[in-house]
Structure formats: C-alpha cells, structure tokens
Design brief:
4-stranded antiparallel β-sheet, 348 residues, Elongation Factor Tu (Ef-tu), domain 3, alpha+beta
Length: 348
C-alpha cells in the first residue's frame, strides 16, 4: 500500500511539471506573437541593388470629375416670336459664324407689313395729288389769280403728303427688318452642342434654339468648394486613359451647388470629344513622401514587402503599405520603412 501511494504522488508531480512547461511555452509563444519587429530572413541574400530611403515632396492627388468642353458656349437665341419653321443643324454639326441654321416665321408681321404697304401706297397717291395741286396753284399765282397765301397753303399740303409717304415707307421697312430677324444665325464658329427644338415649335424672344461651342477645347473640372480653395492656376492634372499631363488655366469664382469649375489646358483634346465625361486626378498641395522603384516591392498573398538591410549584414522582410505614384514605375510607401533605411533589391 505504501508503494502504491508514492507511485500516485510521483505521477502527480510529473503531471504538474508537464503543465508548467506547457504554460511557459504558451507564454513564450504569445510573447513572440506580440512583437511587431520584423524577423531576419536568413533565406534571402543581401547581395543586390541597394537604395537609401529618402523623403521628398510628393503631390497630393485628388480624384475629380471632368468634362471635355469649349472655353465658351454661344447660345443661339430666338429674336422674334413665332413658329420655328426650319432648323437645318443637329448636335455635332460644324457651323461658321453668320451661317443661317434656321428660320422663324411670324404671321402677324406679314399682316402688318401688308397694312403698312397699303398705307404707304395711299400716302404716295396723296402726295402725288398734292404735288399736282401745288403746280396748278403756282401757275395761277404767277398769273395773279391766287394770292400768295393760297400758294403757301398748297406748298404746306404737298410737304405734309410727302412726309406721310416717307413715314409709311419707314414703317414698312421696320416690319421687314423685324421679319428678317426671324433668321436663326450661328453666333460663332464651332460645333453644335445642342439643337433640340423641333421644327414647328412656337418660340419667344430670348428662347435658346441651339448651343454652339466657342473658343478652344478645354477640360472642365468640377471641384468641391473645399478643394477649390487649395487649387491655384498651373496645378497639374492627369486624366485616365490619356498620356501626359495638363495644367489648370482658369478657376471660375462662382459657386454652384457647392461646386467650383476650373479649366485645364491639355494636349490631345479635340472638338469630337466635347461632352464626354472623364475621370481626372488633380494635384492639390504637396506632402513629404517616400517614393521607391516598384522593383524593390514584392507582393505575396496580397501583402507588399521590402527587404531592409540590417547592421549585421543580413536583410529583414518588412511589410509595407503602398500607394500608386505619379510615375508608373514607382510606388509611394505609406508605412513600414523610414527615411534612412536601406532597401535591398532582388526580392523573390
């Protein structure tokens, strides 16, 4: 019985010893997991191209929406009331300044012109009659039949009839000139952006019949009001799908629905692209950033790493957070390394 008792105690002691070792091993494992220092990778060679990390001024690129348009837009307005009898252009057509692209007819002007024409004819007949009467009175006055007062009366009547004739002709000319304003004329050279009023529609003076581009083709940005305060003329602009960069040439002071417009001069824009929406990036300010060639970055399982040289001559695999840079062959490192670290290329 004594031997059995000591056997049980021995087994209990060994169990306690194994449990203590397990707890110590778990504590060491947890302590190792809590460390955020990268562990040297002995399987990677430190022989390779090296780059000393430095911080430099980097643009803050902000995504904005943009539209290809012309610097100005000329509106083709109706100048008289009436019916749009014809409109010979459609959106996309090229027009030249002064070209007649439609016509507005007002039947009231036709009636008024006919009425003033009749008045002019009547006034002209009266003037002819007064002229004949004046000639007769002049003859009789010269022969002593009529007194001088009668001659002056006849001269006044002839002058009044001539004035009435001129007034009637002027009124008729004004109606004709007003009817001539029914011609819809392009105000500038350019491309028709909108011409959506169908023929036969009634129009009033000042109504927009068509819109024509005017001036050079530009990229117009729609900027939030807060972002616009950081943008200055000359700011760099990139457009998705287009090579090269443009620059801001004009910032409009008006704020519409919290948006501010800005024009960008950019190579490769032409009038065939007018009206197209594009995604753009605007350099709004600068910050200190770390830019490195993409060749120093290796991606494994969706995570980016770099090799950092250690003082002992080895390398460490360090996870980093990256962002695209202006140069497609480079990336910006947002976190993971600091200025002064030495990166080793040739990661696999």
């Amino acid at each position: 019985m004594v031997r059995s008792h000591w056997g049980v105690k021995g087994m209990q002691g060994r169990g306690l010893t194994v449990g203590a070792l397990g707890v110590a091993l778990m504590a060491a494992t947890l302590q190792g997991c809590g460390q955020d220092k990268p562990v040297p990778d002995a399987g990677v060679s430190a022989n390779g191209p090296r780059l000393t990390v430095t911080a430099s001024d980097t643009p803050d690129w902000q995504s904005v929406s943009a539209e290809v348009t012309s610097q100005d837009q000329a509106q083709v307005l109706a100048r008289i009331p009436g019916l749009l009898t014809s409109l010979s252009v459609r959106a996309g057509d090229m027009v030249r300044q002064g070209q007649v692209i439609g016509r507005i007819a007002d039947s009231q002007l036709t009636y008024q012109s006919a009425a003033y024409g009749a008045q002019a004819a009547a006034a002209q007949a009266q003037a002819a009659q007064a002229k004949a009467e004046l000639d007769r009175v002049k003859f009789l006055a010269a022969n002593g039949v009529y007194a001088k007062a009668r001659l002056e009366q006849a001269e006044a009547g002839a002058s009044a009839a001539a004035a009435q004739t001129r007034a009637a002709h002027a009124q008729q000319a004004s109606i004709r000139a007003m009817a001539g304003n029914g011609a819809v004329v392009a105000p500038a050279n350019g491309r028709v952006l909108r011409a959506d009023v169908p023929a036969g529609s009634p129009v009033v003076p000042g109504m927009v019949v068509a819109v024509v581009t005017s001036g050079p083709v530009v990229l117009r940005l729609d900027l939030p009001e807060g972002l616009a305060a950081k943008v200055k003329p000359g700011a760099r602009v990139r457009v998705d799908g287009m090579s090269g960069e443009g620059s801001v040439t004009r910032i409009y002071p008006a704020v519409t629905a919290g948006q501010v417009s800005a024009d960008v001069a950019m190579a490769g824009l032409d009038s065939s692209l007018i009206g197209r929406r594009m995604a753009a990036q605007l350099a709004a300010g600068i910050h200190r950033g770390i830019i490195v060639p993409r060749a120093f970055i290796v991606t494994r399982y969706g995570l980016d790493y770099v090799q950092v040289a250690t003082k002992s001559g080895g390398v460490m695999q360090v996870p980093v957070q990256t962002s695209p840079a202006a140069d497609a062959k480079s990336v910006e490192i947002l976190s993971g390394v600091n200025a002064g670290d030495v990166l080793v290329g040739g990661a696999s």
